[in-house]
Amino acid sequence: DTGVSQDPRHKITKRGQNVTFRCDPISEHNRLYWYRQTLGQGPEFLTYFQNEAQLEKSRLLSDRFSAERPKGSFSTLEIQRTEQGDSAMYLCASSLGPPNYEQYFGPGTRLTVT
Amino acid sequence: RKEVEQDPGPFNVPEGATVAFNCTYSNSASQSFFWYRQDCRKEPKLLMSVYSSGNEDGRFTAQLNRASQYISLLIRDSKLSDSATYLCVVNMRYGGSQGNLIFGKGTKLSVKP
Fold this sequence. Notes:
The structure holds 2 protein chains of 2 kinds. Chain A is mainly beta.
């Protein structure tokens, strides 16, 4: 399977803990995106990498959130001091070109903060 | 005005029906438009890109009206397997940035036997 993969698929954590999610994009895609989706809403953009450079961050991404893509391949999204409002599906997508190109999504990581 | 607005539905239709989804967007500088399909508790999957001249893929037809900032998706001969949420997606560009994909909330379709 050469699609976008994400790990873990589910994460339950207690409020105040830190969590880290991983995304492996489609191998030839140099653009990688993180989104957050809550129930009844469409995905909301969080941040975007071109190779290892983080080019854009949404205002949704507070200072508790950080993302890296150290070698331009996989990416990690870390949430520090989780809050109940962080409970959501975290989706990763990748594309062959800029953000106006077609993006392909991974299965997501569902985070529950108790 | 919301950046991307869709009728939330749900649309409940019998098999074989034709159903149309509409979407409006706020940024006239937007350049790329897509329809994604999302099944319950799954990731969004690209259904089709939307081109200025309109495009068709089997039973699915997408139209774009730049003057009215309006996008549509028509599904003919609905199948049970078409039941899903359909997301209208627009690449919003501001200033010199390449823009981001902005998703509508989605329109839920339920096709009944």
